[in-house]
Design a protein that fits this description.
Elements (H helix, E strand, L loop, with lengths): L2 H26 L4 H16 L6 H8 L3 H13 L3 E6 L2 E9 L1 H19 L7 H20 L17
Protein name: HTH marR-type domain-containing protein
Keywords: DNA-binding
Pfam families: MarR
């Protein structure tokens, strides 16, 4: 097997293992990966950046179609994790907000996700970690410089989950 092919396959396998572990934790809370991704982006906007967000803006931000976003929000609202509130600046639109239950769940799962992401890195020395980071930055920059215009780059803590 070609070395490049082997590296690519290893990257995908490592990512898949992490995704499977996170999926198990999400399933225990009755959530899917796309639902968690939406909740994480909502948390970032409403709690970290202190900005209200509409379903349409959340759709644009995540790269999830509006129709899919509506279904995700409907299910999260049905499970009492989110609420739709009328936008005080524009009565024709709504903002999405966490319920107390939803806020607690997204905060708990964020810690679990961090643990899942960080655990395998404990196998690396500080020097190996720095080298890995530098190499991944090179790869990311190459991909950005050679993208064909069809790719959507998300500034997310959950890459590839849209």
């Amino acid at each position: 097997m070609d070395l490049r092919q082997e590296v690519v396959e290893l990257i995908f396998r490592v990512a898949k293992i992490g995704k499977l572990k996170l999926n198990r934790q999400l399933a225990q809370k009755g959530l899917t990966l796309p639902q968690y991704f939406v909740m994480k982006m909502l948390y970032k906007k409403t709690y970290e950046e202190k900005k209200p967000i509409s379903p349409a803006d959340l759709s644009t931000l995540t790269g999830i179609s509006r129709s899919t976003m509506t279904g995700i929000i409907d299910r999260l609202e049905k499970n009492c994790l989110l609420d739709r509130k009328q936008n005080p600046q524009d009565r024709r639109s709504q903002n999405i907000e966490f319920t107390e239950k939803g806020l607690n769940i997204v905060q708990d799962l964020s810690m679990v996700a961090d643990e899942i992401r960080n655990e395998p890195l404990k196998a690396l020395s500080e020097e190996q970690l720095l080298n890995l980071r530098d190499d991944l930055i090179l790869i990311e920059n190459y991909l950005k410089d050679h993208e064909d215009g069809d790719l959507v780059y998300l500034k997310s803590e959950e890459p590839g989950e849209h």
